[in-house]
Amino acid sequence: MVKILRSLVRHRRLVRSFVVRDLKARYVGSTMGFFWSVIFPIVNLFVFMFVFQFLLRARFGDQMGPKEVAFYMLAGILIWAAFAETLTRATNCLVENANLIQKVVFPSEILPLNLGLSSLVNMLIGLPIVVAGTWVVMENPLGVQFLAIPVLLAVQLLFTVGLGYLLATLNALWRDTYHLVGVGVQVWMFATPIFYPPFLVEQAKIAKSDNPDDGFYTFGWLLDINPMHWLVESWRRVLLFGQWPEPAMLLRFTLVAVLAFAAGSLFFQRQKRVFPDLL
Amino acid sequence: MGPTSEQSGSAIIAKDLAKRYRIYDKPIDRLYDVVLPFKKRFRDFWAVKNVYLDIAKGSTIGIIGVNGAGKSTLLKLLSGISEPTRGEVHVEGRVTSLIELGAGFHPEFSGRENIHLACSILGLSEAEIAEKMEPIIAFSELGDFVDRPVKTYSSGMYVRLGFSVATCVDPDILLIDEALSVGDEHFKGKCLRRLNEFSEAGGTTIFVSHDLGSVRSMCSHVVLMDDGEVVEQGAPDAVADEYLKRVRARADDPMQMRSRAENEYPAWGSGELFLEDVQVLGEEGQPGRMFQTGEDVTIRLCYRAVADTEDPVFGVGIYRSDGTYVNGSNHLWRDQPIEFGAIRAGETGEVDMCLGRLPLLAGQYYLSTFVYDHSKPAPTAIDHREHVQTFEVVDARVQQHGLLTLPSTWRVRRTAGADAETTEWTSER
Asked: In terms of DSSP bridges, do strands A216-218 and A205-207 run parallel, antiparallel, or are they unpaired?
């Protein structure tokens, strides 16, 4: 892990070149350019608003009207999109850059980081909308709590890139990983309270049988094992409600992020020497 | 040169270098192997083994060998792209490899942006890139195209840009893998000049090729690889002879000739008569796949008639591998034509096209055969086959370049001053 971090620092200029290239590559040749970074989440927002608010009539509690719900969802979508995008792209990054890895002496460990940074920058383009929105419609807009944003960005990057290392390595060894990740990300998204408030999960229950005395299956544990829930929740507290993140939650996420990065980078480092032969 | 030279004067030292690839039958076995490394699920394949090299600074080394001999793997080990399974490599200085020109170019970006990124991959700082940018663009001769996306480039332009980047960044060691097929003759010449300048300035070049001609003209020392091992090294001529011996032994192996995939190229015709075999015969009348310039060569067409036919005419087209039509002829359009007349079903025979002393220079060539019915005003195809046979010409004796040898002599006349006598020299062929 230290080895990888050191290598990342050593190649920071190359990382920057790649991030810039990736950001440019997103919209090179398109007329609207970076505007798409904003349009995409907003369209997504309308779709999910329609489905969850109007068709399914999900309850968001008493204190949130439709406008609040919109920004509540939008914040979740932006964060999730950055995470999911990095994850899927990182999984395939070694295969996609096989040309570089096989033909040039190339530090492949920078690839997941590039993707993570690029997605975060993309996310930062969308975030001001959320912040501006909360100033207009919410009661407790962002104040001094914006100081928490760099911390959240850092732990999110750590977690995402750590998983990215793990999945990229797995995918180099076994190509089905990529498809598996595609499905997994989808499932994970709906398991995370993005389009619905967390208390719905806590309340949800399914009877074990027709006899009510048998008890119920409950789903609150889903939130207790889902690091992305902790992250999204922390972001929302800061962006929407002008509160500091809940320390316990943020701490837990940080711990998981460090673990993910340690495990992912270790696995990556140990398999790295075979990449040129595998791809 | 050689294993005895001083360590300080070496650019690259390889000790007991070996590379093993693991061949897995199923992709998932690779994953199991990482998770549960207790059972053997792979077969070993040693692409390179027992390689000792000591390459002096400033020398130009050629690595030759047939396809699959491990040349490219060795180059990857020397460049540090892939890690050796056993042994070690010491490298002094910055290595640039021309294993693939333009690796990592992004098609949507302009040439200039791609130069920038390629240079940062090679480890140049921002200031160095700014300094190198103009020379690179100038050398690549891209002109205004440098600001257009790389996807609009012709393949020649792409390779030119790649070559310019790789050689303009002041490497100490240059590794070249057959990369000199860089577009037109003009640019090729420029590349060779650039490589010569590079080695005159003290750079070390390692050059992988199976083009004997360029290896002989450029290298001071040649390493011959076969089956992953260095089997011979030394002066270019001696090693080249050994290489030719091995290649001919392999190429003339009849098993190898039969195993060529059949009919991957177009063939058509009415089919009353067909060619059972097309052979290229060498000096001793043996069918082969590899010939030397100047060798007595005959192309033999063996036919079998399955139905009656009138006036078939056999023709042969000779092409160079790049599609250049070298020659086409048949036995009818001659001063003294041979006419077949009627052929009955069941007849077999052979038609020879005797080339005499083969004038073709080194390269890959292929043959197409044409059997046409000339009894009608417009000849129609009976059995037309494209690309039926390939052969290679190597040229160890003739020091000429291009497509064909020409029976030329050279004459020089010199007069030292106004009153002096004129002296004349004439060179033999």
From this structure: antiparallel
Backbone angles phi, psi at A157, to 5 degrees: -60, -45
User: pLDDT per residue over B94-142, tens digit each?
Assistant: 887 776 777 778 888 889 988 988 888 888 888 999 999 999 999 888 8
Interface contact B105, partner A, CB < 8 A: no
Q: Which two tokens stand for residue A86?
A: 């990095």
Residue B327 in tokens? 């020659």
Cα B174 from Cα B59, distance rounded (Å): 11
Q: What pTM did the predictor assign? A: 0.72
Burial class (CB in 10 A: 0-12, 13-18, 19+), A1: middle
Closest residue by Cα to residue B187 from B156, B220, B153: B156
Helix (H, G, I), strand (E, B) or coil at A204: coil
User: Based on the number of CB atoms within 10 Å of its own CB, is B427 exposed (0-12), middle (13-18) or buried (19 or more)?
Assistant: exposed
User: Which residue, B169, B155, B73, is CA-closest to B119?
Assistant: B169
What confidence score (pLDDT) does residue B261 get?
43
- The first and second tokens of residue A83, run together, are 């995470």
Burial code of B291-302, b = ≥16 C-beta within 10 A, e = fewer? bbbbbebbbbbe
Cα(A33)–Cα(B31) distance, integer angstroms? 40
CA distance B252 to A8: 53
CB contact set of B50 (below 8 Å; sequence gap of 6+): B16, B17, B18, B229, B230
CB contact under 8 A, B104 and A100: yes
3-state secondary structure at position B341: coil
CB of A278 less than 8 A from some CB of B: yes
Say how far apart CA B161 and CA B145 lie, in whole Å.
11
- What residue has token string 């460049």? B79
Put simply, whether B103 touches A (Cβ < 8 Å) is yes
Sign of CA dihedral B355, B356, B358, B364: positive
- Cα-atom radius of gyration of chain A, to the nearest Å? 20
Return the residue in A12, A14, A21 with the most chain B beta carbons within 10 A, the one to mutate for interface testing: A21
Judge whether B392 and B295 are in contact, CB under 8 Å: no
Interface confidence (ipTM) of the complex: 0.75
User: Which among B211, B214, B97 has a CA at the least distance from the CA of B162?
Assistant: B97
Cα separation, A141 vs A144, whole angstroms? 10
Q: Count other Cβ atoms within 10 Å, centred on residue A172.
A: 27
Give me A171's structure tokens.
């995918």
- Measured in angstroms, the CA of A196 and the nearest CA of chain B are apart by 38
* Nearest Cα residue to A15 out of A109, A100, A97, A90: A109
Q: Which residues contact B103 (CB under 8 A, 6 or more apart)?
A: A99, A100, A103, A104, B162
- For the segment A131-151, what is each residue's pLDDT rounded down to a tens digit? 887 888 777 666 788 889 999
Parallel, antiparallel or unpaired: strands B95-98 and B229-234:
unpaired
Task: Say if residues B34 and B72 touch (Cβ distance below 8 Å).
Answer: no
| CB-side neighbour CA atoms (13 Å) of B256 | 13
Who among A25, A101, A173 is closest to B106 (CB)? A25
